[in-house]
Amino acid sequence: MEEEPAEPEPEEEEEEEDEQENDAPEAEEEGEPEKRPRPRRTAKTRAPKRSATAPVPRQKAVRKETSRRRDPRQPSLFSRMGQENGSRTATRTIGSILLTLLAIGGMIILFQFFAASRFFALKGVDVVWPAAQRGVPPLLSAREVEDAVRQLDTVKRGVLKADLEEVRKELMRNPLMREVEVARLLPDRLRVSVVERRPVALARRDSSVVCVDDDGVMFGDRTSHWRGGDVPLISGLAEGGEGAQDINRRLISIYKKLMADLDQGEPPLSSQIDEIRFDKDEDVRLVLTGNRGAVLVGKEDFRIRLNVALDILAAISRKDLETLNVLRIGDAERLLSGKINYVNVNDPKRPIIGLDE
Questions:
Q1: pTM (two decimals)
Q2: pLDDT (0 to 100) of residue 94
């Protein structure tokens, strides 16, 4: 079979004509003989068309790798990263703890070294009494308090290492101490603030006479710690057992009320009392001076009741039967010949007189 000739493209013919026209003048100018026309190129023999831009290189297709299934026993990337971060954090934490412990240990060693040095050795004790600022003289001297502090072992280790609570407890063993506060005055002194017990009454305790404060606490002795004058002695205070301090506190309150009532008018009557006795019901029995017997006055109206009893005793001493009859004393003649043991004026309108048997 014969192949049909391909039709020439118009653009290619025009290009060939142009080339022939461009070649013709050059031949005429040079005087060369006219050359034979070039054979016509067909589509099969045509030169490839030139382009101003370089052809884009063809990329090779990337072959996809088949995905592999992860072994479940093999840790994942995130778990490996978490383990690494966790180990780093634990290492840093342990390192920080060790450094902190070393720092604390070093500070403790330095503290022990400097605290035991002579720089902090006790050189003096400043003793103050807040009550002394109100004009109340102290019962203890500053020297006595300082000596009590210096003999403690905790103070001998130095001011900085001294146990202040132990010092306070040891000072509170003294019955005269009501409140004690201890403070450091660095580098070498201590400050002790003392609130002493203030005696408000004298009480019989066994065979001795002791002081009593507002709380009903018995302490000291009459010779060393009492600064007042002659006052009636108290008997019947609780010396131990459950609630003893509460009982004594109430009795001391009654005592103070009694003394104030007896001395509120003229003449004061407390000087005629030798002893104040409290019974189990907290009633008051007054023992008169001069061995004149006792007067039962109960818990109130102390001055009024005592005045009635004193009038009766005065009439008996004068053997005044008329006055005794006015005072509603029965069997007055018998009273004139007997010795009075007590006068009960709990009811002032109906006094009762008891005689020694």
A1: 0.63
A2: 84
